[in-house]
Amino acid sequence: MPMQTWQETIARQVAAGTSFGTYTTAKTVINPQALVTIPAGWFEIGKMLRIRVMGGIGTLVTTPGTITFQVMIGAVIAFTSGAIQLNATAHTDLPFDLEILLTCRAVGSGTSANLMGMGHLRGVMFTLTAAQVDGVNSSASMMVPATTPAVGTGFDSTIANILDFFTGFSISSASNTVTVDEYLVESLN
């Protein structure tokens, strides 16, 4: 039997993003205006979100380390890309594109609610093998997470939570930077 569905934009970034660098602990990288509060009881099993993030990434030459992308529900990591290897060529604010599809698998209080997430990531600065450079980098497009897909950390869907987007680097450098220029969150049903 068909299901009545619609798409609705629930969050978007409307102004230029800030360039963030020189940090390791994951933190928010979207403009405060793009934060959205998900009301208590909004999630139901099967509810889907599509998150699209586009911007620029700068990388340190030779040993840039890794970058991790996270979707946060309140203080909980509801989805993580895992550590994505950055290639050994220096980059300055080159474009990247990340699209994540999240599906609610469970709802409830405490840590009962969770989301299953998968997506794809594109950008010349990403690689599957450390020390690769642009000339030999053949994996500028990859699936995320970088590990076996699994539901994210449980959260409380019976209370209001802020939906946020974080990144973190494994190496703190002024050259390792991220700027989010486009951010869109859609409810697919």
Q: What does this protein structure show overall?
A:
- The chain has 189 residues and is mainly β.
- The chain has one domain (12-187).
- It has strands at residues 8-12, 19-21, 27-28, 36-38, 48-59, 66-73, 76-80, 84-85, 91-106, 114-122, 141-144, 161-169, 177-187.
- Strands 1, 2, 5, 9, 10, 11 and 13 form a seven-stranded antiparallel beta sheet that branches.
Summarize the entry for a quick read.
With 189 residues, this protein is mainly β. The protein is built from no helices and 13 strands.
List keywords for this structure.
mainly beta, 189 residues
Task: Return the structural class.
Answer: mainly beta
Helix content: under 10%
Large-scale geometry: elongated
Whole-number average pLDDT? 93
Number of folding domains?
1
* First-to-last CA distance: 15 Å
Helix and strand pattern: EEEEEEEEEEEEE
Percent strand = over 45%
**Biggest sheet layout:** 7 strands, antiparallel
Low-confidence stretches: none
Radius of gyration: 17 Å
Strands, total number: 13
The number of helical runs is 0
